[in-house]
Structures are given as C-alpha cells and as structure tokens.
Amino acid sequence: MNLIIRLLLNALAVFVLAHILNGVHVDGYVGAIIVAVVLALLNLLVKPFLVLLTLPITVFTLGLFLLVINALIILLADKLVDGFSVDNFWIALLFSVLLSILQSLLQSFIKDDK
C-alpha cells in the first residue's frame, strides 16, 4: 500500500511540475501516473548500470554527474511515454532537481511502517 501511495505522490509531483515548467508537458493525471511508474522502473533497472558505467567521472565531479544521469533518465522516460515530453536537456536537468525536492517534501508526510 505504501508503494502505491508513493507512486501517486510522485505522479502528483510530475503533474505539478509539468504545469509549472514551460518545457515539460504531460497529458493529464493518468499520464503523470504512467510517467511516475516508468521513472520508478528506470530508476530501478537502468540507473544502477549508468551509475556503475560512469563511476570514474562521478567520483571526479564529486557526485555532480549524478544530476546528469537523472536528466538522462528523464529524457529516456520522454522517449518511452507518449503523453510526456521534455523540450531539452537543461529543462530535464531542472525538472529532475525540482522533482527530487518535491518528492522528498511530499514523501516526508508519509509515516514509515517499521
């Protein structure tokens, strides 16, 4: 149940940011849910390989290259989901940073069942 709530909160964050940022477009709330699921799957499956492949440059930049990897994940989700579009890399970078901040704010309201 907690996973579904987190996905819905992430979809809400995607929906809100798509209306705030000019370069990000999403087709309704259902599209935002699909984007949240695709982003979760990409972060689970693709991101670890990208982090491992780019480990030397990530260490060299003291972790700042992870922002580039997050932007690439956003651009990959743009290619995979029809109702979601991001105009360019810089908008994807800004979107990924704001999405991370908004997700952590929204998920701070959820109690963990430990």
From TrEMBL:
Keyword Iron: no
Pfam families: Phage_holin_4_2
Positions of transmembrane segments: 28-46, 53-77, 89-110
Keyword Transmembrane: yes
Keywords: Membrane, Transmembrane, Transmembrane helix
Source species, domain of life: Bacteria
Xref: PANTHER family: SLR0284 PROTEIN
Name of the featured protein: Putative membrane protein
